[in-house]
Amino acid sequence: MPDQVRGAELVSSLGALRNRIAAACVAAGRETSEITLVAVTKTYPAADVLTLAGLGVLDVGENRDQEARAKAAEVAEQLPEGLAAPRWHFVGQLQRKKARSVASYAHAVHSVDRSELVDALAAAVEQSGRPALEVFVQVSLDGDPSRGGVVAADLPQLGELVSARTSLRLRGLMAVAPLGIGPDDAFAELARIDADFRARFRQADALSAGMSQDLDAAIRHGATHLRVGTALLGRRTPAFG
């Protein structure tokens, strides 16, 4: 049985978060239906994922394959009859050797930033026979390779590689606001890059940007997918080492 106290915490935080998103959408002249909330549950237990699923939050983000794979399996095993299964989003930097594992459970990968990763994910999907994997190409807004992402000038080439693979579906771009740059400035630049990208790749209809601390700015600048952890789940002792 889910912990009742924890369940109440999640109900409260989800309500506050939905109100915050709604207010940001009103201010930006957008509809809340344009926004997909991806609950980043890294370090949180499968019980939280199941509780959120019961509250209608079905998009779940993870950034470590070992934790995500185990948690996805546990959720699938414990999912109550009649409750829709979550959609798993891999949102962390991804090693090529983990591509096959991630493709076995993820519906989307938000951090594709090099050709070898495109090849590895496409091959994994093709070998498994599963439906096409959704791909967000990660763009670097500051050129720091340690944070992941490709510079804007290299986006067309990577977008073409993803588009050429029938086992992958190009959804759009993903970015993280760099340290030392205000979120409005960062996401305004991302919006400019995204406009150019969409003009070239008409199928790219999504933009993954915005986390707990800057989701309001992300909404102002066109984000469709918000990757939210702390504002929804709080700060807790890690459930995984």
Task: Please explain how this structure is put together.
There is one protein chain. The protein has a single domain, classed as TIM Barrel (Alpha-Beta Barrel). It has 9 helices and 8 strands. The chain has helices at 4-28, 46-54, 65-78, 99-103, 115-128, 155-163, 183-200, 215-220, 230-233, and strands at residues 36-40, 59-62, 87-90, 108-112, 133-138, 168-174, 206-208, 225-228. α2 packs across α3 (65-78).
Blueprint of the fold:
Blueprint: H1 4-28, E1 36-40, H2 46-54, E2 59-62, H3 65-78, E3 87-90, H4 99-103, E4 108-112, H5 115-128, E5 133-138, H6 155-163, E6 168-174, H7 183-200, E7 206-208, H8 215-220, E8 225-228, H9 230-233
Helix pairs in contact: 2-3
What is the CATH domain class?
Alpha Beta
Biggest sheet record: 8 strands, parallel
Helix run count: 9
**Integer-rounded radius of gyration:** 17 Å
Order of helices and strands: HEHEHEHEHEHEHEHEH
**Global shape:** globular
Stretches where pLDDT is under 50 for at least 5 consecutive residues are none
Distance from first to last alpha carbon: 24 Å
Mean pLDDT metric: 95
Spatial sequence of strands, sheet with the most strands? 7-6-5-4-3-2-1-8
- At the fourth level of CATH, the homologous superfamily is Alanine racemase
Number of domains: 1
CATH-defined architecture: Alpha-Beta Barrel
